Every structure is written in structure tokens, then in C-alpha cells.
């Protein structure tokens, strides 16, 4: 919302509006009874408890933006980004965008027991490409992932860095208009990170936008210019990354480590 | 900090040409998206088949052997001990064709009902109409069943039948069975996703259905003396009609009456049409 303070100024460059997003989870309160019977009873009879993961968050994104979303574990940033990608319904609020953002997440490979090659084909088809387009893009994606011979091994056997490269290759095979990157850049070696950052910059310069989600200040500093700091579901600060990060780090320093 | 109300945001969004991405689109758009992603659906079904073959090294072999072993057990327990073998002029092919159809129905309904919870890896990383998942399951099950069903031909020959042109129709009863199971799982998959405990009932309901559907006896004969209501229900029970359709490929006297055929085609079509809408509505609400 760095430049969302006066969103009415110019609607032409708008690419995404997050409008008053609230995400609640209903969970059963688990009490730690002394006997197994008590614990079972609390499972069955336990009162439902509402967890407010994200509270009334709004911001806009414009063409060329790179927005950082930072916050400690459990701040609600992953829930928020899943809602932005349409993978989860918000409890209240709306997400408006030119096209559904592509999400690149740490969790979930398409089919972990199948080879990287098959996952690439499947992923590209799921993004709506025709078999011909897939065949055309396939060599390029292989090159981006740098997986070489490992491409024929089951994804289950990959290291987390290799998985990150695989998913990055799939999600950016055809540059999406809006790319959401949830923690996925943290893994992988420096060469991959350089390639990934170049790809993010390319999306921005093609009039797209990226949102980078991370708990690591360095990653946010390297990839974004504006930044939202989310803590316990609330926006704690918005502004140029260089201004927000010191506040976040100071907070982390005083709240070691919940 | 936010200068906009939701109404202003919506107005601004429309001006800028944005649309809602936090909910499934209108029904028409949903159907178009399904069609656009047909290659994905097919590829995913094939991938699941490959996966199954990798996981059980003798994958297809078991898909043939398992129904054959079950048939042997039923032959012993029901055909010989309880005397249902005299229900058909050729009980062996009657039984084996029935078991293969039943296995397809049960397996398609089981995996179709649970598909939303067994595919989290996929649904957590990609957005696509979720109805493609039960559809892919139906395709996968059909492919597996068709591959395995080839063994019905040598069995029919060994059982003393002469080949006729109707033998070539064997794929159709299997496709019909899968479509019916798909229609049902369009509803059950949503229910299981909402209330996870329901999945405990799937195998139980299937077991009960198996006993009343005439897998190892002839429904028409065994319910002949039953009260009219019971007899009607037993005869119109969709799995029971589906079994008869498969058997009729080999045993013409098993061909269901025309009103039973009309019934099974219309209930399948109705389930799929209404199921598509119900599934889409569930997706709008819950993702």
C-alpha cells in the first residue's frame, strides 16, 4: 500500500486490489486433560475457537510493482497469499485482478512420486497451455530448472533447492502477469537465486507485478522496493522496503522468538 | 490507512478492468475453463495410471488377478455352497463379468469420493476447476478396467461360449459404469470434503450395495417372490442394471428390459448434469 494510500489517483495501472480481506479459521480448542478420556472428550465436545489469521487487510498493486510481504511465522502471510492466488476463500473481502495470480509455494509438488519431467508437462498443461505449446516450452523450462539428468527421477528424491527450481521453472515458463512467491526463493543456491531475481525483474518490466512473501529480511530487501509488514494478521507497517525492514528487525530483536 | 470502502474498490476495479479471482467464475465460464484444460485432465489421468503401475510393480497384473481371485471365492461361497450357480446358463462368465464391473464401480466411487482430500499436493499449488479431479479419476479407472477386461474374452471362450459381434461392445458397459460412478462422486466428493467422517461410510455403503446388486446371483430370479416394492427397487438399483448390461455382451438373455436401459441412461445423465452444477456451487463457496 506504499502507493496505495491514494489509489484513486490513477486506475489505469492497477493490476490487483485486495479489498478488506479477513481470514478466519475455525478450530477445535484442544485442552490437555490429564487422562486420555478427558482428552478424547475435549476432542468431541470441545468448543470451536476462531483464529483470526488475517484481519481486514487492503492494498493495491500496480504494473511494475514488486511488493514484499514480511512477517514472523504465523503472521498470516501465507494465508493471505493463498487467498490472492484463488486457492483459498477469504472469510470476508474480495480480490480483484487482471488475471489469476500464479503462485509459487514451498509446499506441494504436483505429483511427488513421478519424475520432474512429467511434473513439468502436467504443470504447464494445468496452466492452460496446449500440448504443442508445452512441447515448445519444455526444453526452456528444463534449462531454467538446471536439473539435467535428475529430471527423470521422482520429485520425491529431490532436495528442497531442486524442488524450488522445478516449481520456479513451471510457474514462470510463460511469464505470468502477477506472480506470488511464497518463501520459495529462500531455498536454492546463489546461482538459482540470481536467475530467479532476473526472472522477477523481467515480469515487472513486462508490465506485470510480483509479490514476494518471506520471513527473511534479506530476501525481501533484494527483491522488492515496497513492503507490507504483517504481524498476527494485522498490517504493522507499509512503505519503502528500506524503511519497513528496520522496524521489523527491531521487533524481532525484542520478541526473540515466539 | 485504506482510503477505500468495498463499494469504491469494486467500482475502481471495474473501471480498471479487473475481475474477482477469489471465487469460481459463472457456470458457463467454469465449463469453458474445464474444456480449455482437457489436455491437463487427460494427462493427469494418465499420470495417475502410471503412478499406480509404479507403486505396485505388477500393477496391471493385479488389476486382472484380483477380480479373478474374488470370482473364485464367490464361485465357491455363493455359486456352490449357496447354490446360485444355477441362476445362469453360464455362471462362470456371468460371475466374472459381474465382478469386473462391480470392481470398477466400487473403485471409481471410492477414489472419486475421496479425491478432494487425496490430491492436496496438487490443489495447494495449482488453481483449476476442481471438478477435473473426479473426472480424471473416472478416466483413470476406466482405462485400468478396460485393460484388465481383455481377460474376459479368453475366459468366455474357455467357458464354452462362441464369439459374436456383441463381444466388441464390451467397452461401453464399462464406460457407462464409470460415468454413473462419476455422477455419484460429484456429490459424494463434496460431502466427504465438508464432513471428513463420511468417508468411513463409503466402504460400508459399497459393501451393502454389493450384496443387494446381484454380483453373484441373478436379481430377477432371487427377488422373484419378494413383495412388489422390494422387487422393483432391486431391479432398478443402478449397479444391478449396470452388471446386467456388461453380462449381456456375452449372455444375450441378460440384456435388461428397455425401460431399465432408459432408466440407467437417464439417471446417469441427470446425475452428471445436476452434479456438475452442485459441484460448481460447492467450489464457489469452499474452493
Question: In CATH terms, what is the architecture of chain A?
Answer: 3-Layer(aba) Sandwich
Task: Please bin the fraction of helical residues of chain B.
Answer: over 70%
What's the CATH topology name of chain A?
A: Rossmann fold
Give the overall pLDDT of chain A as a whole number: 83
Query: Structural class given helices, strands, pairing of chain A?
Result: alpha/beta
Features:
heterodimer, A: 258 residues, alpha/beta, Rossmann fold, 6-stranded mixed sheet, 3-stranded antiparallel sheet, 8 helices, globular, B: 287 residues, mainly alpha, 14 helices, 73% helix, elongated
Structure description:
The complex is a heterodimer of chains A (258) and B (287). With 258 residues, chain A is of the alpha/beta class. Chain A has helices spanning 36-45, 77-84, 116-126, 131-145, 160-171, 190-205, 217-223, 241-254; strands at residues 14-28, 48-62, 66-70, 92-97, 102-105, 178-182, 209-214, 226-231, 234-240. Chain A has one domain (63-254): Rossmann fold (3-Layer(aba) Sandwich). In chain A, strands 5-6-7-3-8-9 form a six-stranded mixed sheet, sandwiched between helices. In chain A, helix 3 runs parallel beside helix 5 (160-171) and helix 4 packs antiparallel against helix 5. Chain A starts with 13 loop residues before the first strand and ends with a helix. In chain B, 73% of the residues lie in helices and 1% in strands. Chain B has one domain (24-286). Chain B is built from 14 helices and one strand, in the order H-E-H-H-H-H-H-H-H-H-H-H-H-H-H. By secondary structure, chain B is mainly α. Chains A and B meet through strand 1, strand 4 and helix 3 of A and helix 1, strand 1, helix 3 and helix 6 of B. Strand 4 (92-97) of chain A pairs antiparallel with strand 1 (19-20) of chain B.
Task: Sum this structure up briefly.
The complex is a heterodimer of chains A (258) and B (287). Chain A has 258 residues and is α/β, with parallel strands linked by helices.
Amino acid at each position: 500500500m506504499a502507493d496505495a494510500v491514494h489509489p484513486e489517483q490513477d486506475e489505469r495501472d492497477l493490476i490487483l486490489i485486495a479489498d478488506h480481506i479477513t481470514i478466519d479459521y475455525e478450530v477445535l480448542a484442544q485442552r490437555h486433560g490429564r487422562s486420555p478420556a478427558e482428552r478424547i472428550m475435549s476432542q468431541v465436545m470441545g468448543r470451536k475457537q476462531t483464529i483470526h489469521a488475517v484481519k481486514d487487510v487492503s492494498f493495491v498493486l500496480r504494473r511494475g510493482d514488486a511488493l514484499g510481504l514480511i512477517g514472523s511465522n504465523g503472521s498470516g502471510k501465507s494465508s493471505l497469499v493463498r487467498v490472492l492466488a484463488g486457492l483459498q476463500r477469504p472469510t470476508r473481502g474480495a480480490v480483484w485482478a487482471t488475471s489469476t495470480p500464479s503462485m509459487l509455494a514451498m509446499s506441494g509438488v504436483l505429483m511427488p512420486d513421478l519424475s520432474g519431467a512429467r511434473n513439468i508437462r502436467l504443470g504447464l498443461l494445468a496452466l492452460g497451455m496446449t500440448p504443442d505449446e508445452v512441447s515448445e516450452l519444455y526444453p526452456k523450462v528444463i534449462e531454467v530448472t538446471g536439473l539435467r539428468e535428475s529430471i527423470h527421477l521422482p520429485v520425491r528424491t529431490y532436495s528442497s533447492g531442486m524442488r524450488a527450481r522445478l516449481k520456479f521453472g513451471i510457474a514462470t515458463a510463460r511469464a505470468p502477469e502477477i506472480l506470488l512467491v511464497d518463501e520459495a526463493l529462500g531455498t536454492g543456491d546463489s546461482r538459482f537465486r540470481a536467475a530467479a531475481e532476473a526472472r522477477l525483474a523481467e515480469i515487472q518490466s513486462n508490465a506485470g507485478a510480483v509479490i514476494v512473501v518471506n520471513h527473511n529480511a534479506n530476501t525481501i530487501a533484494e527483491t522488492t522496493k515496497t513492503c507490507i509488514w504483517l504481524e498476527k494478521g494485522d498490517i504493522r507497517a507499509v512503505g519503502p522496503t528500506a524503511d519497513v525492514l528496520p522496524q521489523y528487525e527491531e521487533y524481532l530483536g525484542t520478541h526473540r522468538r515466539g | 490507512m485504506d482510503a477505500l470502502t468495498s463499494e469504491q474498490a469494486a467500482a475502481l476495479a471495474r473501471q480498471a478492468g479487473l475481475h474477482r479471482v477469489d471465487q469460481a467464475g459463472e457456470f458457463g465460464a467454469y465449463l469453458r475453463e474445464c474444456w480449455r484444460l482437457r489436455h491437463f485432465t487427460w494427462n493427469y489421468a494418465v499420470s495417475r495410471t502410471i503412478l499406480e503401475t509404479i507403486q505396485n510393480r505388477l500393477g496391471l497384473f493385479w488389476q486382472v488377478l484380483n477380480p479373478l481371485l474374488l470370482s473364485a471365492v464367490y464361485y465357491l461361497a455363493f455359486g456352490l455352497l449357496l447354490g446360485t450357480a444355477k441362476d445362469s446358463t453360464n455362471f462362470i462368465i456371468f460371475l466374472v463379468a459381474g465382478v469386473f464391473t462391480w470392481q470398477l464401480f466400487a473403485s471409481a466411487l471410492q477414489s472419486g469420493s475421496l479425491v478432494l482430500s487425496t490430491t492436496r499436493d496438487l490443489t495447494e499449488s495449482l488453481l483449476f476447476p476442481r471438478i477435473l479431479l473426479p473426472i480424471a479419476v473416472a478416466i483413470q479407472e476406466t482405462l485400468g478396467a478396460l485393460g484388465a477386461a481383455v481377460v474376459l474374452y479368453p475366459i468366455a471362450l474357455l467357458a464354452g461360449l462362441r464369439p459374436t459381434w456383441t463381444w466388441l461392445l464390451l467397452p461401453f458397459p464399462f464406460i457407462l459404469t464409470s460415468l454413473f460412478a462419476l455422477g455419484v462422486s460429484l456429490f459424494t466428493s463434496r460431502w466427504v470434503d465438508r464432513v471428513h467422517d463420511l468417508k468411513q461410510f463409503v466402504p460400508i455403503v459399497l459393501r451393502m450395495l454389493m450384496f443387494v446388486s446381484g454380483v453373484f446371483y441373478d436379481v430377477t430370479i432371487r427377488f422373484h417372490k419378494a413383495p412388489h416394492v422390494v422387487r422393483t427397487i432391486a431391479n432398478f438399483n443402478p449397479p444391478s442394471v449396470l452388471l446386467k448390461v456388461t453380462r449381456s455382451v456375452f449372455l444375450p438373455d441378460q440384456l435388461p428390459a428397455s425401460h431399465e436401459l432408459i432408466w440407467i441412461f437417464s439417471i446417469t445423465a441427470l446425475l452428471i448434469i445436476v452434479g456438475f452444477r452442485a459441484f460448481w456451487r460447492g467450489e464457489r463457496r469452499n474452493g
